[in-house]
Amino acid sequence: MTVPRVEHGPCRDITRPTHAPHGRASLCGRARWALRDFIERSRDAEVAVVYYASHGIEVDGVNYLVPIDAALERDTDIYDEALSLDRVLIAIEPATKLRLVVLDACRDSQDEH
Fold first, then answer.
1. Starting at the edge strand that comes first in sequence, how are the strands of the sheet with 62-66 ordered?
2. Domain extents in the chain
Protein backbone atom coordinates (compact mmCIF):
# COMPACT_ATOMS: atom_id res chain seq x y z
CA MET A 1 0.00 0.00 0.00
CA THR A 2 1.34 3.42 -0.92
CA VAL A 3 0.43 6.39 1.25
CA PRO A 4 0.48 9.76 -0.49
CA ARG A 5 2.75 12.41 1.01
CA VAL A 6 0.92 15.08 2.97
CA GLU A 7 2.23 18.45 1.87
CA HIS A 8 0.49 20.64 4.43
CA GLY A 9 -1.18 18.38 6.95
CA PRO A 10 -2.75 19.62 10.16
CA CYS A 11 0.36 18.89 12.26
CA ARG A 12 1.06 21.15 15.19
CA ASP A 13 3.68 21.39 17.90
CA ILE A 14 1.67 22.73 20.83
CA THR A 15 4.79 23.54 22.83
CA ARG A 16 5.50 26.51 20.58
CA PRO A 17 3.92 29.75 21.76
CA THR A 18 0.91 30.79 19.73
CA HIS A 19 -2.06 33.01 20.30
CA ALA A 20 -4.43 31.04 22.52
CA PRO A 21 -8.13 31.93 22.83
CA HIS A 22 -9.20 33.52 26.11
CA GLY A 23 -5.58 34.12 27.15
CA ARG A 24 -4.85 30.45 27.85
CA ALA A 25 -1.09 30.19 27.87
CA SER A 26 -0.41 26.87 29.60
CA LEU A 27 0.47 23.79 27.58
CA CYS A 28 -2.65 22.06 28.84
CA GLY A 29 -4.79 24.95 27.63
CA ARG A 30 -3.05 24.91 24.25
CA ALA A 31 -3.43 21.12 24.10
CA ARG A 32 -7.18 21.37 24.66
CA TRP A 33 -7.53 23.97 21.91
CA ALA A 34 -5.26 21.99 19.57
CA LEU A 35 -7.37 18.88 20.21
CA ARG A 36 -10.56 20.79 19.40
CA ASP A 37 -8.97 22.05 16.20
CA PHE A 38 -7.78 18.53 15.37
CA ILE A 39 -11.33 17.19 15.82
CA GLU A 40 -12.70 19.77 13.38
CA ARG A 41 -9.97 19.22 10.78
CA SER A 42 -10.05 15.41 10.93
CA ARG A 43 -13.81 14.95 11.03
CA ASP A 44 -13.93 13.24 7.61
CA ALA A 45 -10.43 11.75 7.71
CA GLU A 46 -9.54 8.18 6.92
CA VAL A 47 -6.48 8.34 9.18
CA ALA A 48 -6.02 10.11 12.52
CA VAL A 49 -2.67 10.02 14.33
CA VAL A 50 -1.78 11.66 17.64
CA TYR A 51 1.79 11.62 18.97
CA TYR A 52 2.35 12.64 22.59
CA ALA A 53 5.73 12.94 24.33
CA SER A 54 5.82 14.02 27.97
CA HIS A 55 4.51 12.66 31.25
CA GLY A 56 1.47 10.60 32.11
CA ILE A 57 -0.28 9.64 35.33
CA GLU A 58 -3.09 7.34 36.36
CA VAL A 59 -5.63 8.57 38.90
CA ASP A 60 -8.60 6.40 39.93
CA GLY A 61 -8.14 4.15 36.89
CA VAL A 62 -8.06 7.05 34.41
CA ASN A 63 -4.91 7.89 32.42
CA TYR A 64 -3.95 11.53 31.98
CA LEU A 65 -1.42 13.26 29.75
CA VAL A 66 0.48 15.75 31.92
CA PRO A 67 2.14 18.78 30.29
CA ILE A 68 5.62 19.69 31.48
CA ASP A 69 4.35 22.94 32.99
CA ALA A 70 1.53 21.35 35.01
CA ALA A 71 1.28 22.48 38.62
CA LEU A 72 0.09 19.39 40.48
CA GLU A 73 0.03 20.50 44.08
CA ARG A 74 -2.96 18.38 45.15
CA ASP A 75 -4.79 15.33 43.77
CA THR A 76 -7.64 17.33 42.28
CA ASP A 77 -5.30 19.52 40.20
CA ILE A 78 -5.06 16.70 37.66
CA TYR A 79 -8.55 17.59 36.36
CA ASP A 80 -7.49 21.14 35.52
CA GLU A 81 -3.83 20.67 34.63
CA ALA A 82 -3.89 17.50 32.49
CA LEU A 83 -5.73 16.02 29.53
CA SER A 84 -7.55 12.71 29.80
CA LEU A 85 -6.32 9.99 27.41
CA ASP A 86 -9.99 9.04 26.96
CA ARG A 87 -10.60 12.52 25.51
CA VAL A 88 -7.85 11.95 22.94
CA LEU A 89 -9.32 8.55 22.01
CA ILE A 90 -12.74 10.14 21.48
CA ALA A 91 -11.11 12.76 19.24
CA ILE A 92 -9.70 10.16 16.82
CA GLU A 93 -12.80 7.94 16.80
CA PRO A 94 -14.32 9.33 13.55
CA ALA A 95 -11.33 8.18 11.41
CA THR A 96 -12.53 5.41 9.13
CA LYS A 97 -9.36 3.43 8.35
CA LEU A 98 -6.70 4.03 10.99
CA ARG A 99 -6.79 5.50 14.48
CA LEU A 100 -3.39 5.66 16.15
CA VAL A 101 -2.17 7.22 19.38
CA VAL A 102 1.56 7.02 20.09
CA LEU A 103 2.44 7.69 23.73
CA ASP A 104 6.08 8.42 24.46
CA ALA A 105 5.48 9.07 28.14
CA CYS A 106 6.70 7.97 31.49
CA ARG A 107 3.66 7.04 33.54
CA ASP A 108 3.18 7.15 37.28
CA SER A 109 0.32 5.72 39.30
CA GLN A 110 -1.11 7.87 42.09
CA ASP A 111 -1.88 4.65 44.02
CA GLU A 112 1.84 3.71 44.21
CA HIS A 113 2.74 6.74 46.36
1. 83-84, 62-66, 47-59, 98-109
2. 47-112
